[in-house]
Amino acid sequence: MVANEKKPPKPLKVNSVPGWDVGPDEIKAKQKEDDSLKKYWDLVGKPVEVGKPQFLKKGMLYGKYSGKKDTDEKIPLVVPTELRQKVVSLAHDTLLAGHRGAAGILLARSA
Quick one: pLDDT band at residue 111, thresholds 50, 70, 90? Predict the structure, then answer.
C-alpha cells in the first residue's frame, strides 16, 4: 500500500481545444460587434416593463431573469453569436462537462 501512495496521480487526458483562450476584453468586443445583440444593448438600464432586464457588469452585457421560484434569480452572460458554439461545446463535450455530448448520450442510452 505504501508503494502506491508514492506514485504521482495520473494526469487527466483532456484534449486541447483551440480557441478557448477568450478573455473578457474579447467578449466585450464581440458583444459590441454582434448585430443580433443590438436589441439587448438598447434595453440596458430600461425598466423591466419594456423588456427583459439587461445590465452591464465590468463592461459586459448580462441578462437577468427569475426561475420558477422568485428566489431562483439567474444572471447569464449574453454570449455573442460567434462564441455560442464554443460555449455549447464546453458545456457538453469536454471531460468535465455535465454530459458527454449528443453522440455519447445516444451511445449510453442504446447500451
Answer: very low
**Alpha helix stretches (DSSP H) within 1-111:** 2-6, 24-33, 38-43, 81-93, 101-110
Look-up of cell digits 452585457: 61
Q: At what angle do helices 81-93 and 101-110 cross, to 10 degrees?
A: 30
pLDDT digits (tens, 9 = 90+) for 30-53: 999 999 999 999 989 887 766 677
Q: Crossing angle for the helix pair 24-33 and 81-93, nearest 10 degrees?
A: 130
3-state secondary structure of 25: helix
Whole-angstrom distance, CA of residue 2 vs CA of residue 5:
5
Distance from C-alpha of 70 to C-alpha of 48, rounded to nearest angstrom: 15
Which residue has cell 416593463? 49
Environment class of 28 (CB within 10 Å of its CB; exposed 0-12, middle 13-18, buried 19+): middle
Question: Which tens digits make up the pLDDT trace of 54-82?
Answer: 889 999 999 887 767 666 778 889 999 99
